[in-house]
Amino acid sequence: MSKSKASQPEQPTEQPAMQEPKPGVNCSGLAVDEKGNQQRLYHTPFEQPLGPHLEKHLGPCATVMRAPLLGCHVYVFPPAPEIEGQNYWKLVTMGLSGFQMPTEKGAEHLGRIELMMYLPADSDPKALNADELGPENFAHSLLVSYADMCMMNNSWFKHNDGVGGNMFTGQEPLFEGSAFASAMLRHPTHMPVEFFHPRWRNEATGEETQVNLLCVVPLSMAEYKFRTENNSEELFKRMCASNGGDAGKALVVDVNRGSYLTNSGGKKKKSKKNKNKNKNKKNQQAEE
Questions:
Q1: Is the separation of the CB atoms in 94 and 114 below 8 Å?
Q2: Can you give the residue ranges of every domain in the chain?
Q3: pTM above 0.85, yes or no
Q4: Residue 251, phi then psi, degrees to nearest 5
Q5: For residue range 203-233, what is the model confidence (pLDDT) as tens digits?
Q6: Are residues 209 and 199 in contact, defined by beta-carbon separation less than 8 angstroms?
Q7: Taking a C-beta distance cutoff of 8 angstroms, is the pair 118, 42 a contact?
Q8: What residues contact residue 281 under an 8 Å CB cut-off, 6+ apart?
Q9: Is the distance from CB of 157 to CB of 185 less than 8 angstroms?
């Protein structure tokens, strides 16, 4: 094992210049308090229609991992075997879609997102507790941290983007026994288009607005490098091949999976919790 400082994750893509927001559009965003400290504010005008929309496609919501103050909430949907393709845990952010991301001209309809993650049916997802980061809480932690990254950097997160690191350990594995250090963003294209591109009226502006759902798929740095040298679709083909051609199953995040750069797609030994006592400084590097 070796120790090294966590480096800052790379940005998904070169970002276009920030557009001046229209009054009332940005319900989430960055604010500065009286002491000059930057604060992240989360609120989406789409929560009322988005909640029932998610339950229609994912099954009943079991709980909401509520953030303190005005942080980003995470809705938790347990496995729903009665719905085809939904016998998995699903975690979905709530609040990020209040932030209008800067986009290229003509792509404004892709400027609002919520992030989600699929987990195996035998998972037991929990919220981050103190400084521990492990297989039970990494999903919640990653979703919230990538939402923060999106807002803090005025980023445009979109389908097939890669995020070359994370806000906890830079480009090192998140915890002992896992190779996850980076991620890829994907629409759940195995689902109906109306699920991941719903449209509603924005009560704040009166305009019809699209909200886009993006899956966060954690990757090892070797897989991220392959994606960079080839493309996201080529990596996703390997992900599907490792899951019997099932595009939905390919999005399920299993901390015990094998590398997608081999054809086996097999399991590796169970991961262990690793106390991540100083998330943004030094972390033990996991052996692959």
A1: yes
A2: 43-284
A3: no
A4: -90, -10
A5: 777 889 999 999 999 999 999 999 999 999 9
A6: yes
A7: no
A8: 5, 6
A9: yes
**44 within 8 A of 28, measured Cβ to Cβ:** yes
The tokens of 273 are what?
């919790």
For residue 142, give the nearest of 122, 117, 171 by alpha carbon: 117
CA atoms within 13 A on the CB side of 90: 28
| pLDDT tens, position by position, 127-138 | 876 567 899 999
Residues of the chain scoring pLDDT < 50: 1-6, 14-25, 264-266, 269-288
**Which DSSP state fits 176?**
T
Non-local (6+) Cβ contacts of 222 within 8 A are: 179, 259, 261, 288
Q: How many CB atoms lie within 10 A of CB 57?
A: 20
Task: Provide the strand spans (E) within 128-242.
Answer: 132-133, 162-163, 182-186, 199-201, 208-210, 212-219
Kindly state the tokens that stand for 164.
């070359």
Sign of the four-CA dihedral 268, 274, 280, 283: negative
* Tokens standing for residue 251: 């999005």
Instruction: Tell which residue, 85, 69, 278, has the closest CA to residue 77.
Output: 85
Q: Which helix (H) or strand (E) holds 118?
A: strand 113-119
Q: Tokens 């594995």 map to which residue?
A: 173
Q: Is 97 exposed, middle or buried (0-12, 13-18, 19+ CB in 10 A)?
A: buried
Residue 218 near residue 253, CB atoms below 8 Å: yes
